[in-house]
Amino acid sequence: MQLLTDGLVLREQAAGESDRLITVLTRSSGVVRAFARGARNLKNKSAAATQTLSYSEFSIFCGRESNTIDSADVKKVFFGVRQDLNRLTLAQYFCELGAALSPQEENAEDYLRLLLNALHFLENGSRPPRIIKAAVEMRIMALSGYLPDLVGCSGCGCYESDPMYFSLKGGVITCSKCRRPDGGPTAVLTPGVLAALRHTVYAPFFKLFSFELSEEGQRLLESASERYVLNQLERSFKTLDFYRRVAQT
Known about the structure:
By secondary structure, the chain is an alpha+beta fold. The protein has two domains: 76 residues, CATH 2.40.50.140; 169 residues, de novo design (two linked rop proteins) (Up-down Bundle). Helices cover 38% and strands 26% of the residues. It contains seven helices and nine strands. The strands form two sheets. A five-stranded antiparallel sheet has the order 3-2-1-4-5. Helix 3 packs antiparallel against helix 4. 39% of the residues are buried.
């Protein structure tokens, strides 16, 4: 079967002397892994199109045991992301999230759109990295079936109190009166941070990255979204650990 689709290269691995095994988030078929023959040779016309963070047009032959890239043409290379270590490590984390949570053998247009927009804002510097990171984390979790209930307190239904508590295991919010001390790990949310967290999961996509927070608010939002991902998925991400080390230097 021949697959014609656009996609973002999430990961590349050396295979043999000159080949690459790439993981691509495709629009029409989700995550696809395929061999790019000779792609590690700089003179190969598929070399740039099959590098991590390249958005390309692919023709992929899907065989019984493996897939092979027949052709790949670059549509966009995020050079600005690659030139800054902080942005690069954050982009690599987005790629690992995408590889872990995006579907296979089904349409993944929303996932691809999310990552491409995040990389665009990360490259041009028009949005704070912490806001981009939180928006990607919460929206990709929502797309993948981990949508939290942030409408109101899970106990009394109140819309807002100062503070509110976000249950990282239960995916619900509670007010101070309804909060249980034994309710598991929580993130403390001020009204502004709660509004931002709601925005990341409920806002129309074209407004997803369009909100502002103070530096402290960004820090609290980033912590809440990151901890939600790690608690819900019960796993770590090597790229996130590396990003954290880079960000602290």
